[in-house]
DNA sequence: ATTAATGTTCAGAA
DNA sequence: TTTCTGAACATTAA
């Protein structure tokens, strides 16, 4: 499931391939039962992306942004199972959008959005609308510093795990990495956010950044269900470094206590009850 | 065959 | 104001 590291990997995987290329045709695939959700409308989306040049590719939290020469931005939200691919998709079944690019020798003729579950969304926004999206997001997890994190945590007494998932507080962390981050920082997922000591906030900030950086270097996590893959349809490798996620019943690699699974805000939390306090 | 589980975001309710 | 719940979906495992 694409969180910050997976989305960053998508961006890095397509940036050099598509920057400076022209979209010669935007194809909205209609092979699925439910058509993909497009903002503002599919007609204007197709009209305003065709025959425009892609001038850059950026990441905004868990979104991929394609900058266009018109000053507009294609904003792609992969959500659960969305992939951005230069290669053939895992199946032909769930292709959602194909952007056909001007042909260049040795380069991919297109970029596509493939989404098995179909929860992903695609939008065409102007600079103003993109700013509004940005305003609703907290500090990017890779840019976090201790003082900022302390100020954020002070504002709420919800559990630290749920707080880490709140995109308007900190942007980019999802369910998988929240568990891994808290384990690295040795902090219980159930502590109220505003109860953390200064040393705990320091450890947490360090864990947020180091887990995210390492996961980016490993090109994200590809789980057993194989939902996430990079732009060339290859697996990431950070799943080999998971300490607690989906490891309930196994020994904690740090203290050998049995890892437990709990549910917070309707999502699984994995943690070690001994070394996370 | 049915059902639970999977996780991100947003609208709407509490 | 803040926090919580359910819906948007498809697929797999039990």
What does this protein look like?
The chain has 277 residues and is of the alpha+beta class. 28% of the residues lie in helices and 24% in strands. It has helices at 4-18, 42-49, 127-135, 146-154, 160-165, 175-184, 198-217, and strands at residues 22-28, 37-39, 52-60, 63-68, 73-77, 82-85, 95-101, 110-115, 121-125, 139-140, 170-171, 260-264, 267-271. The strands form 3 sheets. The protein has a 9-stranded mixed β-sheet with strand order 2-9-5-4-3-1-7-8-6. A hairpin with a 4-residue loop joins β4 and β5 (73-77). The two termini are 28 Å apart. The structure holds a DNA duplex (14 and 14 nucleotides).
Give the strand content.
15-25%
List the domain count as a whole number: 2
User: Which sheet architecture does the biggest sheet show?
Assistant: 9 strands, mixed
Q: How many DSSP-defined strands? A: 13
Distance between the termini: 28 Å
Helix content: 25-40%
CATH architecture of the largest domain: Alpha-Beta Barrel
Rg of Cα set: 20 Å
CATH topology of the largest domain: N-terminal domain of MutM-like DNA repair proteins
In CATH's first tier, which class of the largest domain applies? Answer: Alpha Beta
Task: Estimate the mean pLDDT confidence.
Answer: 93
Contiguous helical run count: 7
Give the name of the CATH superfamily of the largest domain.
Answer: MutM-like, N-terminal
């Amino acid at each position: 499931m694409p969180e910050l590291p997976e989305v960053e990997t998508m961006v890095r995987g397509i940036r050099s391939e598509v920057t400076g290329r022209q979209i010669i045709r935007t194809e909205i695939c209609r092979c699925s039962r439910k058509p993909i959700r497009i903002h503002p409308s599919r007609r204007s989306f197709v009209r305003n992306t065709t025959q425009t040049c892609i001038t850059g590719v950026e990441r905004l939290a868990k979104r991929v942004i394609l900058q266009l020469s018109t000053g507009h931005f294609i904003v792609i939200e992969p959500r659960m199972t969305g992939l951005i691919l230069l290669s053939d998709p895992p199946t032909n079944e769930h292709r959602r959008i194909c952007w056909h690019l001007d042909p260049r020798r040795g380069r991919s003729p297109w970029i596509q959005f493939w989404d098995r579950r179909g929860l992903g969304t695609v939008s065409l926004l102007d600079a103003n609308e993109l700013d509004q999206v940005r305003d609703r997001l907290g500090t990017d997890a890779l840019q976090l510093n201790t003082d900022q994190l302390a100020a954020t945590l002070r504002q709420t007494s919800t559990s630290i795990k749920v707080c880490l998932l709140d995109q308007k507080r900190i942007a980019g962390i999802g369910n998988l990495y929240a568990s891994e981050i808290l384990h690295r920082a040795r902090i219980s997922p159930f502590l109220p956010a505003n109860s953390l000591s200064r040393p705990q906030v320091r450890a947490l900030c360090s864990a947020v950044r180091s887990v995210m950086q390492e996961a980016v270097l490993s090109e994200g996590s590809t789980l057993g269900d194989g939902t996430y893959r990079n732009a060339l349809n290859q697996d990431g490798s950070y799943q080999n470094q998971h300490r607690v996620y989906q490891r309930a019943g196994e020994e904690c690699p740090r203290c050998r206590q049995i890892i437990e699974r709990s549910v917070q805000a309707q999502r699984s939390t994995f943690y070690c009850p001994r070394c996370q306090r």
